[in-house]
Amino acid sequence: PRLPGSAFYLLPTRAWEMLAGSLVWWLTRQHSMPQQLARVLEFIGFILMALSVTLFDSSRPWPGVYAMVPVMGAMLVLIANRQQSIFTSNIIARQIGASSYSIYLWHWPLVVALTYASKQYHPGWIVAGIILSVLLGKASLLLVENPARKVLASVSPGKQNWVLGAAVMCTVLLAVGARYQQLENRINPAIEMAMTPKLNNASRMQDCLLTPGEGSESPKCSYGEGELTAIVLGDSHAGMVASVIADVAPGSVIEMDYASCPTVLDFKRREDINDDCKTFNDKAIQLLNHEYKNKLVFIANRSSLALLGQNEKDAFFNIPMGYFDTPNDRPNPNLNKQFTAQLIKTMCAIENSQRVFLVRPIPEMAMDVPNTMARALMFGNPARDISISLKEYQQRQKVIWDAQDEAAMQCGVKILDPLPYLCHSGRCWGNQGGQPLYSDDNHLSEFGSQLLIPMFRQAFEPEEYTELTKSPGNG
User: Fold this and answer.
1) pLDDT tens digits, one per residue of 100-125
2) 156-165 pLDDT per residue, tens
3) How far apart are CA 19 and CA 237, in angstroms?
């Protein structure tokens, strides 16, 4: 779906699932069903739910059309309404059903605990978490929920409101106190150092990075002082290095970027409204050729997202985020070919293209570096070294490297390679000396970005800079 986070969490996109239960009641309120038909419908319903559990994974956008499969399965089981079913009337099913909401409440903190401990994919820990959810849910039902329900039922409605109001107020006060308390050494300094990049992650990004629904007109955030010397163009990876480029530029720098929108003409982003990514790129090239025609241009993108999808387990794992004609559910050679041709077309469309610097893709760690380091420290373990092999990087970025090389050969753009500054000993590193080089799984932290200063400084060497910013007519 477009905007998968909102589609998953917000009521308007999930209300139909609850209304499905109401529809079952409406259809069956006055009619009984032959037992033979009820058995068949119940069996089909459980088959649909079993298929959902076994076949669906994080590579499928959720919710969406696939959500109809388990919902239809549940509807069929409810329609069958078999009180003597072997599936639903056995003692285990009845006990789990009685405490199902308590289990639901307990399972999430256990999921979070396993994630913090990096055990979320370990089969043994998963089974232990399920068993513990059931046991805690049963205990919660017997020791907390049922007694509280009986006590509240024995007092007047007015007293019930006072009790519930007091409980809510206490919870709010505790939450506010935890949020704003200032206790020295409350957090282990090593944990604080690991999490600082995430807490400080691109505060300007909220103001400077366009996202779907915000149109295609860049706010053109400016860094530094003096005459405009360079434009930083791309997606969030451009915003990630804009301040570093400004640190070495002789004058000011303007940032123009759109989330997950590579600088490739005619590219469309899955979550776009009104093809804003495509329009953004069209406007950007026009600006480079007119208003900013003699300025250096630095282009940085996470283009692998467009061709291969996310490499972290998320809604778009292995699902390309963009397309040119029709969306793609899987990476494919045709999309690669289109991307290469359009990237070359885009670079050649920039006048005086020798002033353009294409940044090679930043290595993607596939895991949140600050979170992984901090969580290990929380459990008393040393902060693990996070890295990917050069081979992994080269396999994922090969199409993009080849396209950039072809653009450099045909259009005269220059290539900036961050690997010498981020990779050594055959690996690209996510942390260094206890400090994360990333603010998440793919964006460099301020500390990591600073390592690229020597790379960007090359573009502003006096002789090189003077030559590149000459107008073609004045050469």
Assistant:
1) 888 988 998 999 888 877 787 788 99
2) 888 888 988 9
3) 42
**Domain limits of the chain?**
1-89, 100-181, 196-474
Which ranges of 66-122 does DSSP label H, i.e. alpha helix? Answer: 68-80, 91-98, 100-116
Q: What is the model's pLDDT at position 410?
A: 96
pTM above 0.90, yes or no: no
Give the position of tokens 């500054």.
Answer: 421
Helix (H) or strand (E) holding 179: helix 157-180
DSSP 8-state class, residue 65: G
> Residue 298 pairs with which residues in a beta bridge?
232, 357
Can you name the CATH fold of 196-474? Answer: Rossmann fold (3.40.50)
Residue 301's contacts (CB-CB under 8 Å, 6 or more residues apart) are: 234, 235, 237, 238, 262, 263, 359, 361
Q: Which two tokens stand for residue 148?
A: 């509280």
Most confident of 350-354, 374-378, 470-474: 350-354
* Residues near 87 by beta carbon (within 8 Å), at least 6 away in sequence: 42, 46, 77, 93
Measure the N-to-C terminal CA separation of the chain; round to a whole number of Å. 51
DSSP output for 3-40: SHHHHHHSHHHHHHHHHHHHHHHHHHSS----HHHHHH
